[in-house]
Specification:
With 217 residues, the chain is mainly α. The chain has two domains: 13-65, Arc Repressor Mutant, subunit A (Orthogonal Bundle), CATH 1.10.10.60; 67-212, Orthogonal Bundle (Tetracycline Repressor, domain 2). It contains nine helices and no strands. The protein has helices at residues 18-39, 47-54, 58-61, 68-90, 98-115, 118-126, 132-153, 164-187, 194-212. It is elongated. Keywords: DNA-binding, Transcription, Transcription regulation. This is TetR/AcrR family transcriptional regulator. Residues 23-83 form the HTH tetR-type domain. Residues 1-25 are annotated as: Disordered. It comes from Nocardia halotolerans.
Length: 217
């Protein structure tokens, strides 16, 4: 006899396959956690709070996540992916000159931070100091940002004078500077106009390119 809500093969329940229902619950938990972590903070939240916000029974939480830290890692991955996508989309015009590409990419980056304050709170603040695993995830995002910068400026770098390994080290410093600019902007409640913040970030990038580019003195 087929159980109520299941087909003959036991594959469906209430009109959706069990795997799909689990994916839906997982997505709702991530969405709810993004809101809670990004507005109230990770350290003040609980699994019970997230489940209530997601409309998901607490017993279903553990089918997708081992604990709240595991959920934080997933929320951080998705948030970082949004930042990286914004930069990618901003810098995708390969025909533009390097200064334009940098400005458009940085504008997209800071615009997302301005439009959705949950993004910087999760990416820059809630993620820090939780555990070694979470710290590694944070630095993996920095690595990804360095990769983007390297791909963007590599054609404009004098690699004979500045080996790739040295350039990568410099770019870590550059990415760190951009992140600090963003953090300061957020902590100051976005008082500085977006265009001024972008101008400042572009000035930092331009100063680095002026020293490592083929036309550097």
């Amino acid at each position: 006899m087929t159980a109520p809500g299941l087909d003959a093969d036991g594959r469906r329940y209430r009109g959706a396959a069990p795997g799909q229902r689990q994916q839906d619950r997982r997505a709702r938990l991530v969405e709810a956690a993004t809101e809670v972590f990004g507005t109230e903070g990770y350290r003040t939240s609980t699994v019970t709070t997230i489940c209530a916000a997601a409309g998901v029974g607490k017993r279903y939480f553990y089918e997708s996540f081992t604990d709240s830290e595991d959920l934080l890692l997933e929320v951080h991955r998705e948030t970082a992916a949004r930042l990286i996508e914004a930069i990618h989309l901003g810098a995708r015009d390969a025909e533009a000159d390097i200064d334009t590409q940098v400005r458009v990419a940085l504008t997209a980056y800071f615009q997302l931070i301005l439009d959705d304050p949950r993004v910087p709170r999760i990416a820059f603040f809630e993620i820090l100091g939780v555990s070694q695993a979470v710290d590694r995830a944070y630095h993996e995002v920095l690595d990804a940002l360095v990769d983007i910068c390297l791909a963007l400026i590599a054609p404009h770098v004098d690699l004979e004078t500045h080996p790739a390994v040295s350039v990568r080290t410099v770019l870590f410093g550059l990415v760190g500077a951009i992140v600090i600019i963003a953090q300061k902007w957020v902590l100051d409640d976005y008082r500085q106009p977006l265009t001024d913040v972008v101008d400042s970030a572009c000035l930092v990038v331009g100063a680095v390119l002026a020293r490592i580019g083929p036309d550097a003195a």
